[in-house]
């Protein structure tokens, strides 16, 4: 999951640089990619926590 967070940060940095330079289309695309990867990472985190709690309770 660390890899997903890495790519989310990369897309965020690209979006911020593009926004600073005034390239609206590139900034919007990069921000959408960062947002998507962020939410995917959050879903994986929640699933991992729930499965960990279930396994701890069963063991």
UniProtKB/TrEMBL annotation:
InterPro entries: DUF1328. Keywords: Cell membrane, Membrane, Transmembrane, Transmembrane helix. Pfam families: DUF1328 (PF07043). The chain crosses the membrane at residues 7-30, 36-54. GO terms for cellular component: plasma membrane. The keyword Cell membrane applies. Belongs to the UPF0391 family. HAMAP family: UPF0391. This is UPF0391 membrane protein W911_17310. It comes from Hyphomicrobium nitrativorans NL23.
């Amino acid at each position: 999951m660390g890899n997903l967070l890495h790519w989310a940060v990369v897309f965020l940095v690209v979006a911020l640089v593009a926004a600073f330079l005034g390239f609206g289309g590139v900034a919007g695309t990069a921000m959408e990619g960062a947002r998507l990867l962020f939410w995917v990472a959050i879903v994986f985190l929640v699933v991992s926590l729930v499965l960990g709690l279930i396994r701890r309770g069963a063991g």
